[in-house]
Structures are given as structure tokens and as C-alpha cells.
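Subject: two folds for Thursday's group meeting

Dear M.,

Sorry for the delay on this. The cluster queue was jammed most of the week, so I only got both jobs back this morning. I'm pasting them in the order they finished. Each block is the input sequence followed by the predicted C-alpha cells. Could you check whether the formatting survives your parser before we put anything on slides? The first protein is the one we discussed after the seminar.
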Amino acid sequence: MGKVPLMLLAVVSLVGCATNNVATVDYGSEIAVRDVKVSCGVNAYINAAGACISEPILSSEVPLDATAKCKAQVEGRHWYSFSQSRRGTCSHYGGVLQWCELGKCKEK
């Protein structure tokens, strides 16, 4: 098969994100992406895999979709991360205190 514009796949692969430039996908080999600009909107960032992730939040309760409870806290409330990779998680918040899943956190 030939190359197709990635813009056709952007709706499926980058939900919640916007793409501005064109890239191509070559079926039968690795994905070739070039000149793609992604924007996740307010309070989110693009992770190493290219997905839009919510920025860490300060909360007194564990958010249902949090993946880590960070060591840093303010007035008894901890920062919670939604990172999809363990590398770099809570790096600006003192590191990981506990890993979380489905609204519950466990000791590392």
C-alpha cells in the first residue's frame, strides 16, 4: 500500500489533541511522522509517546485515573500524576511516594 495522510488517522490516534501539519504513514513499515504539531489544550502535556496527558493536580483525595501519588504536598494535599510511563513521573514534585490504580495507591 502507498502512503496516506496521517490527518485521517489523527482523530483516532490523538483524541483530545489537534494536529496542524501533515505527516504520512507507510503501511508495512514503521510509522513515519514529520512536521506534526500537536496541541493538548489547557492543563495537559504531550508525553514521550505523543499522547495528551493531564498535568499533575493537587488533591486531598486520590483521583480515579491517577497513576502516582507524588511526595510533594501542600497543607496535607498531595500532587497526583497521570503519567503513562514510570520514567520521570513526579520529577518536579519530589518523586513518587506511591503508585496508584483505580483510585487506590500502594507502597512502592
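Second protein, same layout:
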Amino acid sequence: MNAVQLAAGLNDAGAASLQMVVREVTVELDEARVALESFAESPAENRLALGRLCEHIHLARGALRLAEVYGGALLAEEMEHVARYVESNCADGKADADGLDSLVRAMEQLPSYVDRVASGGRDVPLALLPLLNDMRAVRGSALLSEGALLMLNLESAATAHPAPGASGGESVADIARHERPRFQRALLGWIRGGGSADHLASLAAIAATLEATASTRAVYGLSVRCWRPFSRKVCQAACQ
């Protein structure tokens, strides 16, 4: 088996794993939908349904993270937060209208988003930004920026396995030397605190470039241990 055949095999295995995760997510979301509809019909009598909703969404969120469907996992996380907010603010048997509306919208959008990714579409968290911010506004949390979700886009688009010829003939060492000054400028700019979102986006882009150009198992192993966790930490910093 040559390198191209190996890469194709890894892609097939990844697709099969994603389909298996999607089936599990679909089951959990169906149960979550039933719980949400039950609560919406009678908040006073079915308040416990929100607890069941949170449980199913939490399981779906974990599966989406495992499958590295970052946009879906982020939306599921916001759904869980809003559900708990609605539950804690359900006074006199009346649910928070904005919170309930955002949950209904998210329940419609999340399955469609997951199905699109499972069918070969890109995981594009930025497409979820309006809904995510509506949900965050319901509970008074800081809104997400386009820069923060752009870094999630970069991470979700990163190569999932060593890609022969990914560097276009340029060695990883040459690419690293070329990117080093830009990396240092962005890191220094972020430490100083000016234009933090732009600097973090630059750091994430550089990390994604270095991971995507890994063309051997040794370099890819270093990338997985170093640059992928680094990208996630940068994204977390941007979302705070």
C-alpha cells in the first residue's frame, strides 16, 4: 500500500466513524426535542423535562466533540446553558420567552448542521454566529466575535492525517522558518494586549498551516501533540 492509498483508507475510516457518531447524536437530539416540546406545551407541569433536555444535549455535545464537529459542539453547549438558564428562571409556571424561542431555533438548526457535515460539508462554526449570540444574549453572556469562530473554522479544516505533498514541495522546516517571525509578532502583540482577536487569529492560522503541511507520520505526530492543542488553547482564549 502506497502513501496515497493509506491516506484514502484513513479518510474512509474517518468518514465511517463520523457516520457512527452522527447516528448517536441523532438519537440524543430526537430525545431532546421530545423533552423540549413537552416543556413548551406546559412549563408549569413539565419543568423536569428541561433536565432531560440538558442530559440529552450534553451527551450529543460530547459525541460532537469526539467527532471534532466543533460548530455543532459549540451550539450544543450554548443550548445546554440556555436550557439551564430557562429552568432556573421559570417563575410562576412561565418560561422565559426569548430563551425558549432560541432553544426551538437551535433544535431545528443543529440536526441540519450535523447532517451537512456528515454528508461531506465543511464544519463552519462561523455560520452559526447569529444564533450563538442570540442564545448568549438570552443569559447575558458576552457575545462571540467573528475572529473567535474563524479560529474554530481553521481548526475544523485542519488535515486529519498526514497528507503526502501537502507542503507543495517546500519542507516543513522551511515553512516553519518562514512563519517564525509572523508567529513571534502575533504572540508578542497578544501578550501586550493590543488587537488581541487579530493576533489570536494569526496564531491559529499559523498553527493550522503547520499541521496541514505535515507529510510524514513523525511530523504529523509532533503536530498532533503540539500544534493542535495549541490551536485549541488559542481558541479558548479568544472565546473568553
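Two things I noticed about the second structure. The chain is about 75% helix and 0% strand. Residues 12-138 form a domain with the Four Helix Bundle (Hemerythrin (Met), subunit A) fold (CATH 1.20.120.160).

Cheers,
T.
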